[in-house]
Amino acid sequence: MSLEIRRSNFLFIEQNFSDIIQEVREGADGLHSDGRAVRKTIIFHDFSKMYCVEMLDKDKQYIELYWYDWYNENKQLIMKFHAHYHPDGTPASITKFDPYHLHSSTDTRHHNEKFRELNDILEFIRVRQLSLKK
Question: What letters, b where the CB count within 10 A reaches 16 and e where it falls short, cover 59-75?
Fold first, then answer.
């Protein structure tokens, strides 16, 4: 079932967010894109990284689920932005956040009502990084 979000355009993202993104690399966490799975790693100027995985519908146009996991330069979790449903049998304390949810640096889950598309997430990161420079 699609999230009704079009697949991300990583060429556009790399250009549009060049003030915070150093480069976008093929593959995420050791795995390359294949079939309906798009896997990219975004390297930010502050050396943090975001591992991006988008599972696409059969036409490869819309996202069915995603994981955007953001780590600092020391590989410590900053935040995870996820959109997926957990499988049957998962405790209600977890599924109550489905499908759009965040994992904080303490891996606590939170509802995600605002940052659903990768562009919105990158805008959030841009504002966060600018505020940390002040």
Answer: eeebbbbbbbbbbeeee
Nearest by Cα to 125 from 31, 42, 36, 35: 42
Pairing status of strand 21-26 against strand 37-44: antiparallel
Q: What's the rounded Cα separation, in Å, for the pair 108 and 103?
A: 5
Which of 77, 66, 76 is closest to 4 using CA atoms? 66
Domain ranges of the chain: 10-133
56 three-state secondary structure:
strand
The partner residues of 66 in beta bridges, in order of sequence, read 54, 83
Q: What's the predicted TM-score (pTM) here?
A: 0.91
3-class secondary structure, 86? coil
Q: Tens of pLDDT along 44-65?
A: 999 999 999 999 999 999 999 9
